[in-house]
Amino acid sequence: MLQNALQLRLTPSCRFGSLSSMARKKYKLTWDRGTRRWCKRYKKKQYWIPTRDGETKDSSYSRCWQAWLKKKAEIDAGPEQQRLESILAENSNTLQVLGGLHDRGLLHPEALAVVERQLQAVRNALTTGQPYTPPPPFFVPLSPPVSKTDSLAYHAKEFLDIKCKEAESGGCSVGRYENIQRYVNYFLDWLQGDIPVNDLNGKISQSYYGHLQEVIASKKWTITYASDYWVAYKQFVRWLYTSEILDELPRNITTLHIGKVTSAVEVLTIPQVKNILSAVDGRTRLYILLMLNTGCTQVDISELKQSEVDWQRGRITRKRSKTAKHESAPVVEYPLWQETFVLIPLELEFSVV
Fold first, then answer.
1. Quick one: CA dihedral 118, 120, 122, 125, positive or negative?
2. Closest CA to 253 of 276, 230, 271
């Protein structure tokens, strides 16, 4: 009887122990209670998969197991998958650059196709697990190097040198020359490489025009700012043609336009002018009156000569400073207001003749 009772008492304990052992075996990951993470040891390394907020040990297991299977596939793929992914990323970037060159007619079509075939071969290897076999290379026949005097970059420098001399002689302002220099160099940078000058055709003009339109659409540049770049490009191309450097003018050079946005001129109201004048006196008051009376800029005022003032008729007769060196610029006569006329000899130390 006692022996039977002991057997009855031990039987449940043995059963519970067996159930506990079965429960432990159903997990293929090891649970770490302290950090609330699952752990897997694989190829002499430990890999940890953390639980998320609100997850319990049991509710997190299925997700963490799937995460481990994905990680294991990456480990098993080893260096070969990493190499293929590196090739895929590198060739994707290359394809983007070559695509731009192809659109501008600067790349052999087959060169672009080779990169596309290589990308497809890499994708197939990654998705099917088959060995990667690169496509056969394509060798583009080498063209003779562009001679110095035939290159577009050479003639661009020649064009800019002429503009520099114009600025030095007063034919244009230094600021205007620097702007043209920036516009032309931007086009050369966009071209991504030198070309024979007679390769500058309508396709390149269309592509550069499209590029400027994209910059406008992206809000990086205003229409007016992009228009300055386009106008400078057309000026450069026309100079090449009229200088008999470019054999044929691109046909679309006269049809593609980037118009400037004109805005209304802001003018001061009469009360605003009165408020300004009431706050100043002396020479500052004279300067403001000259600006209002004759449209003078600060340069015009600083270069005003006594000989340009008619003391008998109360007028200033002169060319504007910014156009004074141009023979065709008009000589303008400005009738002076009474207060302007009175302040000129007092503040500019002119002698009334």
1. negative
2. 230
Question: What pLDDT score was predicted for residue 182?
Answer: 95
pLDDT at 272: 93
Which of the listed residues 254, 282, 303 is the one where a domain comes to its end?
Answer: 254
| Residue ranges in the chain modelled with pLDDT below 70 | 1-25, 77-81, 91, 93-112, 126, 129-147, 261, 353
Where does residue 336 rank: exposed (0-12), middle (13-18), buried (19+ CB within 10 A)?
A: buried
Q: How far apart are CA 176 and CA 66, in angstroms?
A: 65
Instruction: Kindly state the tokens that stand for 313.
Output: 């008729």
Give yes or no: residues 211 and 152 share one domain: yes
Kindly state whether residues 296 and 335 are assigned to the same domain.
Answer: yes
Nearest alpha-carbon partner for 72 in 102, 49, 98, 105? 49
Residue 130, domain extent: 28-139
Name 344's Cβ contacts closer than 8 Å, sequence gap at least 6: 286, 309, 336, 350
The CA distance from 180 to 341, in Å, is 41
Q: Are residues 125 and 172 in the same domain?
A: no
Q: Can you give the pLDDT at residue 60?
A: 92
Structure tokens at 45: 């390394």
Q: Pick from 120, 139, 158: which residue ends a domain? A: 139
Q: At what angle do helices 282-294 and 270-278 cross, to 10 degrees?
A: 160
Total residues found in the chain within this entry: 353
Supply the pTM of this predicted model: 0.46
Q: What is the pLDDT of residue 20?
A: 46
Residue 316's SS3 state is: strand
What number of helices (H) and strands (E) belong to the chain? 11, 6
- Residues 6+ positions from 283 with CB-CB distance below 8 Å: 347, 348
Query: What's residue 284's pLDDT?
Result: 93
134 and 32 co-located in one domain: yes
Widest CA span in the chain: 148
